[in-house]
Amino acid sequence: MSTQATEDRILAVLEEDAQASYAEIADRADVSKPTVRKYINQLEDEGVIVGYSADVDPKKLSSQTIALVGLDVASERYVEATKAIKALEEVEALYSSSGDHMLMAEVRAADGDALGEIISEELLEIEGVTAAHPSFLQERLK
C-alpha cells in the first residue's frame, strides 16, 4: 500500500468527520493508530491540515447570517488588501479564486443589515477592494 494512498484514506476520514478519534480513523482507513498519529502530525506540520471545524447549516442558525462574498481587488494592492480582509473578525474564511472574483470570503453577521454594514463600512473601505458581491447561504445541502 502506497504512502499516498494511506494519506488519502486518512484525510478522507478526517474530511468526513473531523471529530473522529485516532482509533476510529485507524479502523476506517485500515491502518494502525500509531500510523494515524504519524500521518496527522506530518500533515499538520506540512500545512496540509490547517485546522478542524464544524460544518454549520446556515438555515438552522437563529442569530447569524452567512454569506459568500466575491471580492474584486486591484492587482497592485492584492497582498495588503488580503491581509486586511483576513484580519476582520467577521471573515470566517478567505479563499483565492480563479472564478469571477479574485477572492471569496465567508462572512458571518447577525442579519442581512449587519452584513451590508460589514461590506460597505469594512470590506469596501479596504484600500484595493474595488467591489463586493454577496451571496447569502440559505441551506446546507451536503
Automatic annotation (TrEMBL):
GO terms for cellular component: cytosol. GO terms for biological process: response to amino acid. PANTHER family: LEUCINE-RESPONSIVE REGULATORY PROTEIN, TRANSCRIPTIONAL REGULATOR AZLB. It comes from Natronococcus amylolyticus DSM 10524. This is AsnC family transcriptional regulator. PROSITE patterns: HTH_ASNC_2. It comes from the Archaea. SMART domains: HTH_ASNC (SM00344).
